[in-house]
């Protein structure tokens, strides 16, 4: 049996009224979760194929095309998902990829701000362990990689860098699941 949810409901159907004396639980019951089981199923379908038609997703999750469209729009607006084109850097002319470990001193946020302004850095993460930050970079060739590393090393507060050059991308996944 297919359950049809009312598109006017924020995300989940069957939100119950609070019982007296249960204020924290009552607030949770009044506010539907953005990640109810139906939205998780929609996300799983989009992770398999981001171009899958909403009507086809609706058949899998038991909603109309319009209901799926509305839910996806709310997930995008909430910043829970992004629907983007994933490219192959090699096909775009980026022949050198690397991970750069960075040790810093001083204000990590200020250094991160400077790194955000640096062309060629695709991914910046604060890390625990051997490095304070990890950067993923894409460059045209080794000369461009060297130039980028030198620009990173000139940023005040960057004490040390270590470059891990990618020889071959074996697998990159985007289907890590929804909890």
Automatic annotation (TrEMBL):
UniProt keyword Transit peptide, yes or no: no
Segments for region (Disordered): 1-30
Protein name according to UniProt: AsnC family transcriptional regulator
Keyword terms of this UniProt record: DNA-binding, Transcription, Transcription regulation
Domain HTH asnC-type, chain residue ranges per copy: 35-95
InterPro entries the UniProt entry points to: AsnC-type_HTH_dom (IPR000485), Dimeric_a/b-barrel (IPR011008), Tscrpt_reg_AsnC-like (IPR019888), Tscrpt_reg_AsnC/Lrp_C (IPR019887), Tscrpt_reg_HTH_AsnC-type_CS (IPR019885), WH-like_DNA-bd_sf (IPR036388), WH_DNA-bd_sf (IPR036390)
GO MF entry, a single one: sequence-specific DNA binding
Pfam families listed in its UniProt record: AsnC_trans_reg, HTH_AsnC-type
An annotated GO cellular component: cytosol
Organism: Bifidobacterium apri
GO biological process, one term: response to amino acid
Matching PROSITE patterns: HTH_ASNC_1, HTH_ASNC_2
């Amino acid at each position: 049996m297919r359950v049809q949810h009312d598109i006017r409901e924020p995300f989940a159907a069957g939100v119950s009224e609070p019982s007296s004396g249960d204020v924290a639980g009552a607030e949770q019951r009044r506010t539907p979760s953005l990640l109810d089981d139906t939205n998780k199923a929609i996300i799983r379908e989009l992770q398999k194929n981001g171009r899958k038609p909403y009507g086809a997703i609706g058949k899998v999750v038991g909603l109309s095309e319009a209901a799926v469209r509305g839910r996806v729009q709310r997930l995008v607006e909430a910043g829970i998902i992004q629907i983007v084109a994933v490219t192959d850097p090699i096909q775009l002319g980026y022949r050198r990829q690397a991970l750069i470990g960075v040790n810093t001193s001083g204000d990590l946020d200020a250094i991160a701000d400077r790194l955000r302004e640096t062309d060629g850095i695709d991914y910046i993460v604060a890390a625990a362990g051997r490095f304070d930050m990890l950067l993923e970079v894409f460059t045209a060739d080794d000369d461009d990689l060297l130039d980028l590393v030198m620009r990173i090393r000139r940023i005040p507060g960057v004490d040390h860098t270590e470059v891990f050059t990618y020889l071959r991308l074996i697998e990159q996944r985007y289907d890590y699941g929804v909890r």
